Amino acid sequence: HFEELAAAMAETQDALDHRLLNEVDGLAAPTLERIAMWIWHRLANRIPGLSQVQVSRDSCGEGCVYSGPRPATRLAAE
Fold it and tell me: What is the 3-state secondary structure (H, E, C) of the chain?
């Protein structure tokens, strides 16, 4: 379903493109990590099997990979 994938990606890009990231709802402090998480949360329900989101800043060689929320950890019974 590449059309659905393309539509989800285009909507996400449109939400960020040519905008002040500080003013995008949910990105008050737009670090690469927060941007990757924001994209994940926006796409996770629309793209089954989404495994990670990668955000890069080519101008300085920085990047971030977000692989979704960590599973809840259980405490060992004592």
Answer: CHHHHHHHHHHHHHHHCCCCHHHCCCCCCCCHHHHHHHHHHHHCCCCCCCCCEEEEECCCCEEEEECCCCCCCCCCCC
Determine contact, residues 65/54, Cβ cutoff 8 Å: yes
Q: What is the pLDDT of residues 1-42, one digit of tens each?
A: 789 899 999 999 999 999 999 999 999 889 999 999 999 999
CA 56 – CA 38 distance, rounded (Å): 14
pLDDT band at 43 (very low <50, low <70, confident <90, very high): very high
Tokens of 56: 């890069």
The answer to whether residues 35 and 42 touch, using CB atoms and an 8 Å cutoff, is: no
* pTM summary value: 0.82
